[in-house]
Design goal:
Distance between the termini: 12 Å
Order of helices and strands: EHHHEEHHHHHHEEHH
Strand order of the largest sheet: 1-3-2-4-5
Shape: globular
Oligomer: single chain
Length: about 350
């Protein structure tokens, strides 16, 4: 186990464990991923410590495997600021997800983590209902005082009442208009419907009929309502397809459910001068450790590492006998972890 505050952290939105987890990865990456997935939160995730626990591979091979798992969307290395003021220190964590996620998901998730840590690190933050105006608010526009004594309120308060009542007097007898349909016939297909219709053109393994698109339209519209683009939706549904898709409708429905993006973090209505929350989380390049913002490190790698990374000889196919030995060692490791 790592020191308190360091080590492995499990990311949300993970599917339950299954025998086929990591089955699409190469043997070495599958071996390392299976071990890391069974580690508890707070376990040491340094290359040196993992190499001690996995004697089948050395530190260089473990480092290459972690880089490949980062590119596959299973992990991100970050630095988290703990404390405030002079007591601030940086701890190193590895966020792990059994379910692979793309760069947009990790970016949104780490942004939410950054906002949560920035809020929790604020010392002695007052309650919202008694909080004083922020220091960036202009002094010439203080909030109007409110008197607690009855009968002492200011006069301008009842003046807008006639203007508020006037529009509400006309439609007394008219029935309420029906709720707008998801896709009005006169408005043409919705963006969600068009995105589903494009799947078969983007990849021939996902042909959907008009009825299929209409059936899945509500789920696809929920994705777009959460702030993702049509291109993001199509990429998420067509990425990493198996060699053959026997039931495109069921396959797309399952992906729409399991890969539903999270809601973007919402902030209270603030004035234009409100500063963004301070950066409490910095992602690290999984290969070289260079820190940066999530948008600058796609796949968890900095630009130099993305351009120089090449698969090495460890990715070559191994003999079936060696593969059987690796499987036996994985079974033994899982048994040891269950007893811990």
């Amino acid at each position: 186990m790592a020191k308190p505050g360091y080590g492995k952290r499990s990311a949300p939105d993970q599917r339950p464990r299954a025998p086929h987890d990591f089955s699409l990865l190469p043997v070495r990456e599958r071996y390392v991923a299976g071990f890391v997935d069974h580690l508890p939160d707070g376990a040491a995730m340094s290359v040196k410590q993992l190499a001690k626990q996995l004697p089948l591979y050395g530190q260089q091979a473990i480092s290459s495997a972690l880089t490949a798992l980062s590119v596959a969307g299973h992990l991100r290395r970050v630095r988290c600021a703990v404390g405030a003021g002079d007591e601030t220190r940086w701890v190193f964590r590895t966020f792990w997800s059994r379910t692979a996620h793309d760069n947009e998901w990790w970016k949104t998730y780490l942004a939410a983590e950054n906002t949560a840590q920035a809020d929790s690190s604020a010392p002695n933050a007052p309650a919202p209902d008694i909080a004083p105006p922020p220091p960036w608010a202009p002094d010439e526009e203080p909030p109007p005082p409110v008197s607690e004594e009855p009968g002492t309120q200011q006069g301008p308060e009842p003046t807008p009442v006639p203007h508020q009542r006037a529009p509400a007097q006309a439609p007394d007898t008219q029935p309420a208009p029906p709720a707008p349909a998801l896709r009005p016939p006169e408005a043409g297909p919705s963006p969600a419907y068009l995105a589903l219709a494009r799947l078969g053109h983007e990849d021939h393994r996902l042909p959907l009929s008009a009825d299929d698109c209409q059936e899945l339209e509500a789920q696809a519209a929920e994705w777009l309502a959460r702030g993702v683009s049509v291109d993001y939706l199509i990429t998420a549904l067509t990425a990493g397809l198996p060699a053959q898709v026997d039931a495109p409708l069921g396959f797309v429905r399952r992906r729409l459910t399991l890969k539903m993006p999270p809601h973007l973090p919402t902030t209270p209505s603030a004035s234009p001068g409100t500063p963004a929350p301070p950066h409490r989380i910095l992602m690290e390049c999984t290969d070289c450790g260079r820190p940066g913002q999530p948008e600058a490190l796609p796949d968890g790698l900095c630009r130099p590492c993305r351009t120089t990374h090449r698969p090495d000889t460890d990715d070559a196919p191994i003999h079936p006998t060696e593969a059987a030995g690796i499987k036996a060692r994985m079974t033994n490791l899982r048994g040891l972890l269950r007893t811990v």
